[in-house]
């Protein structure tokens, strides 16, 4: 029984070792001068720090994001769905999402927070978003 417990702990610990990486296609932007920006941030926290779940945009997995990191994604103005996929208690994939209507040349900020049973995607003010960005590392598509 002790070996099983240790095995589960090692598996959970290694689950957080997935590196931050671009895992899917970034959205195609028709006119970069009119694009909006969606920023997703995972601030430094102990709770949930062992998880590296995929960040999604419009149902497509885009990045694995660790605590202390953020991503900036350019999108066409319009409706977009920002989310995070996670494994539930039965190890099946589920997704938490929010809908955002973007306007050209505007930025929209979301913070991934730990929740009781699953992570949460919370919109934050531009001021709070910029403050969180200054204390986290930006992950760009060219990074491994």
Structural notes for this entry:
The protein is an alpha+beta fold and 144 residues long. The protein has two helices and ten strands; from the N terminus they run αβββββββββαβ. The strands form two sheets. A five-stranded antiparallel sheet has the order 1-4-3-6-7, with no helix packed on it. The chain has one domain (2-138): Immunoglobulin-like. It is globular and about 45 Å long.
User: Judging from the principal axes of the Cα atoms, what is the shape?
Assistant: globular
Strand content: 35-45%
- The number of helices is 2
Describe the strand arrangement of the main beta sheet, using strand numbers: 1-4-3-6-7
The named CATH superfamily: Domain of unknown function DUF5300
The secondary structure category is alpha+beta
Topology pattern, helix = H, strand = E: HEEEEEEEEEHE
Number of strands: 10
CA(first)-CA(last) distance: 38 Å
Secondary structure layout plus pairing:
Layout: H1 2-15, E1 21-22, E2 36-42, E3 54-57, E4 60-64, E5 69-75, E6 78-87, E7 93-102, E8 107-113, E9 120-124, H2 126-134, E10 137-138
Parallel strand pairs: 2-8, 5-10
Antiparallel strand pairs: 1-4, 2-5, 3-4, 3-6, 6-7, 8-9
Descriptors:
144 residues, alpha+beta, Immunoglobulin-like, 5-stranded antiparallel beta sheet, 5-stranded mixed beta sheet, 2 helices, 10 strands, 16% helix, globular
Summarize this entry quickly:
With 144 residues, the chain is an alpha+beta fold. Helices cover 16% and strands 41% of the residues.
């Amino acid at each position: 029984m002790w070996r099983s417990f240790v095995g589960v702990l090692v598996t959970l610990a290694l689950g957080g070792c997935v590196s931050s990486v671009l895992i899917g296609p970034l959205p195609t932007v028709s006119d970069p001068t009119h694009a909006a920006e969606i920023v997703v941030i995972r601030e430094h926290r102990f709770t949930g720090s062992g998880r590296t779940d995929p960040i999604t945009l419009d149902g497509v997995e885009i990045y694995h994001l660790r605590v202390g990191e953020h991503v900036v994604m350019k999108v066409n103005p319009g409706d977009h769905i920002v989310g995070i996929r996670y494994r539930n208690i039965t190890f099946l994939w589920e997704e938490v999402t929010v809908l955002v209507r973007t306007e050209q040349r505007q930025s929209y900020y979301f913070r991934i927070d730990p929740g009781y049973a699953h992570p949460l995607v919370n919109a934050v003010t531009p001021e709070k978003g910029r403050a969180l960005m200054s204390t986290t590392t930006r992950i760009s598509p060219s990074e491994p």
